[in-house]
Amino acid sequence: QQPVQSPQAVILREGEDAVINCSSSKALYSVHWYRQKHGEAPVFLMILLKGGEQKGHEKISASFNEKKQQSSLYLTASQLSYSGTYFCGFQDTLAGGTSYGKLTFGQGTILTVHP
Amino acid sequence: DGGITQSPKYLFRKEGQNVTLSCEQNLNHDAMYWYRQDPGQGLRLIYYSQIVNDFQKGDIAEGYSVSREKKESFPLTVTSAQKNPTAFYLCASRRQGRYTFGSGTRLTVV
């Protein structure tokens, strides 16, 4: 089943903050976040492993709550270059906790940053 | 520089014809993936391969076929059985959890 992302779209002014949420109905091994500019390949942002991890990448950070099967991406002091579609990707937990590496993506959140 | 090459960037085919999309990587990654992207639906997994000569169906494999005869190559054939083939197709490879994507092929069937 596809992860559910919210909101579907966000419009910001430069310098504003945003949060993108992603939730799953299945147990998770890890969460991935990618950003895609229009017509281009998705670009890796970060991976979070089970264990309630939180990671940061410049002014973009994320959290992973394994118990709630949820992840959130935090964008602070947004820049024009942050515009794009953000995807979360979930890897399932198999019996024994070993992941196949198959990633299931959410439907995406379109982020637009205006000057 | 290492990466994934998808060709062609744009592809037009007549309805009822099979078409093969190329995906080549020089990253020495074992795992490779094909995703389909439609507006508002995100990325949906078509097929994936963990090693050479082995591949698995993803969530929307019907109407598609793949082969993995070489580590570097993972071509996708869109057959005439695929009811709605017009889409943006992305190939990816994976190493230690991190995916690297190609720049995609936009297929239009008329």
Protein structure class of chain B: mainly beta
Chain pair sharing the greatest interface: A-B, 24 and 25 residues
Q: Low-confidence parts of chain B lasting 5 or more residues at pLDDT below 50?
A: none
- What overall form of chain B do the CA principal axes indicate? globular
The total beta strand count of chain B reads: 11
Keywords, separated by commas or semicolons:
heterodimer, A: 115 residues, mainly beta, 6-stranded mixed β-sheet, 5-stranded antiparallel β-sheet, globular, B: 110 residues, 11 strands
Please summarize what this structure is.
Chain A is mostly beta strands and 115 residues long. Helices cover 0% and strands 56% of the residues of chain A.
Describe the structure.
The complex is a heterodimer of chains A (115) and B (110). In chain A, 0% of the residues lie in helices and 56% in strands. With 115 residues, chain A is an all-beta fold. In chain A, strands 2, 4, 5, 9, 10 and 11 form a 6-stranded mixed beta sheet that branches. The mean pLDDT of chain A is 86. With 110 residues, chain B is mainly beta. Chain B is built from no helices and 11 strands. The termini of chain B are far apart. The relative contact order of chain B is 0.33. The chains are: A mainly beta (115), B mainly beta (110). At the A-B interface, strand 4, strand 5, strand 9 and strand 10 of A face strand 4, strand 5 and strand 10 of B.
